[in-house]
Amino acid sequence: MELKIKQECPQCGAPIVISESDHILSCPFCGVNNFITQTGLQRYVLPGKVSGFGTTLYAPYLRFKGNVFVVTEKGVDYRAVDTTHAGHPHSRLPPSLGLRPQAMELERLISKRKGSYLEPSLKVGQILGKAAQISELTGKFGDYMYHRAFIGETLSYIYLPLALKDDMLLDGVTGAKVVDPENSERLFESGQKYKSRWRIGFKPTLCPHCGADLEGAGDCLVLHCGNCRKAWELSNNELSEIIWRVAPGDGTTKLYLGFWRITGRIDAMGIHSLADFFERTTQPVVPKPEWRRQIMSYWIPAFKLSPKRFLHLAKQVTQAQWRVKLSTMRKLPNFYPVTMSSSEAKQSIKITLAETAARRRKLYALLPEAQVSGMGISLVYLPFSDKGHDWVQQHTLAVVEKNVLRFGRSM
Ligand SMILES: [Zn+2]
Ligand SMILES: [Zn+2]
Known about the structure:
By secondary structure, the protein is an alpha+beta fold. It has 2 domains: 40-201, no CATH class; 243-409, no CATH class. Helix content is 17%, strand content 35%. It contains 9 helices and 22 strands. It has helices at residues 100-103, 124-134, 181-189, 274-280, 307-319, 342-346, 349-356, 360-364, 402-409, and strands at residues 4-8, 15-19, 24-26, 33-37, 42-45, 56-72, 75-86, 106-108, 116-117, 145-165, 168-171, 177-179, 201-204, 222-224, 231-235, 238-242, 244-246, 253-265, 297-301, 373-387, 390-393, 399-401. Helix 5 packs across helix 7. The chain is globular, with a radius of gyration of 24 Å. The N and C termini lie close together (7 Å). The structure holds zinc ion (2 copies). The site of one zinc ion has 8 residues, from loops.
């Protein structure tokens, strides 16, 4: 479930509530659009109701929400994971925040807040490993794991306030006693000051090329300029220009969905051309002669989906890519926003290959060394027709259920 966060408009100060996946703040009061910049992870606080004496101590929890994929001899397995895990494990503190962050509006951790902060003692990678364990994926089969990927994840810190009262640390939300007097003082003294690098910033969503306002709000990661027709991806606190194309649809087109098209060769597997791809993954397809000259590309959905649908759609469109005809069209009617970044798409190549492989073992053994070189990336919008409960892609006949897409948007 999406977390809700109270956020002040940097322009007019109006109180706004945003979702954790929102990168862009559209103020309904002053109409100004900004995107959020940040070094490292976003930091939020559970609103405390219990006030103690003196200052509050804040304990960090790492929040992970996303899809975990693993490749073992049995194939590709996956789970959607939504968890918080103590970043500063202490026997007296709760190991997880449970459902609490979803039940209340969180506040952003800002420098004005009085208090001290426990340092996370676990590295993000260690906590992610625990997230994979929680998802019961690793160790389930007792098989060798060829590859593991975290895709489409949101990572943040959520702080639990702890109030000091009568030498006891109390849960600042429920008032429950969490740490006895003997341990409280020691824990309290290990708290540190607010760090300036935790601060977030804002930049206006203006086209870096022509200065026009960019279209797109909330969880959009790609913004299109209606004036100069360039497209920009929000990444590393900047707007970076991306190449985008359209495969024009027929008269039944109701919606365009974006796919990251990643070209490149994988030397370890000997996959350079589209023909190589069908041969190395031993699919029952006889490659056409021109496929020998066609560089291999991987087509990864540019929007969030459940792990099962995501994997299936990447496989279907990648296999049927030779049916897609691109054009130089620069106008896009009715397109669904891009909510999956190009860097996440790159991380999805290996699981897509693993899912397509008919004879697994040989290809899987090469996964750890597989690297894509000479990489090129562009965003391609494919046309979909409305078929009742489904959206159907006109060239590849790939299907996206309408309710699944709605789910994806609210992920
Ligand atoms: Zn405002
Ligand atoms: Zn522009």
